[in-house]
Specification:
Number of strands: 16
Helix content: 10-25%
Largest sheet: 6 strands, mixed
Distance between the termini: 64 Å
Number of helices: 6
Length: 315
Amino acid sequence: MTAVRAGRRTVEVHRPDKVMFPGGSGGSGGSAGGGAKEYTKADIVAYHREIAPFMLPHLRGRPLMLERYPDGLDGPKFMQKNVQDHYPDWISRVEVPKEGGTVLHPVCEDTATLVYLADQACLTLHRWLARVSADGTVDRPDRLVFDLDPATDDFEPVRDTARLLGELLDELRLPSALMTTGSRGLHVVVPLDGRHGFDEVHTFAKDVADTLTEAHPDRLTTQARKKDRGDRLYLDIQRNAYAQTTVAPFTVRARPGAPVATPVTWDQLEDAELGPRRWTIADAVDQARTNPWSGLLRSGRALGPARRRLNALRG
């Protein structure tokens, strides 16, 4: 065990030498080939300490779901929503209603919480698209997310779809941003002003996705069942529903080489080296320092004007 300084607190890290990402074949995808590098828990903790100033603005005030790997990447995983009894009191929590009860979600407000969760073998943080409001409710999303999920590992359909979706959102006069998922595709993120409930946001996202798939039925689909998609790219909007989550910006993904879900600029979409696993914990901080989502957090829009423009486009 070792003590790690994390902001104003010191957090105990157990078994820092434990291998979380074994080395070997795999590579980071979307970048140069080669074997995947080995990373220990100490490496994961060090990454979270360094990325914290860039990652925390995307986490504060949001319920989290934790993807944990107690025995490292090669061991079993489990998804955790509830705060465990042994979690320290200084970790923030929010109690959210569910059918038949409530869920007590952790909320990450500081570097110490990031480090503590890394010590708990949490590799990936999945966040709600809404923040906790002043009255304790979590029902007004300030993000809308389109998940571009390709049928294969070919990234070109993802790149092409991102262009098409970006053009449509421009027509609707909605700002948007891109993020590699660290897995297979891209997320297209639209900032909202928090006026609308989940049902309204989800319906709007579905109508945008339907507009695009109707224009390109041979290339795109909104069919949730894989057997119904064929070789078409799945334009997934299901993350916009109540109590659903998306991977957080700058979170680590459970893939060989420790790839990171990384915000990018629209200009970077044209980079031949771009891929869903382009950045890892070794270089994601360098990308974060370029501020690829400059101004996005302050540009949330209402959906009313965009809805009217979309209705006009759809006739």
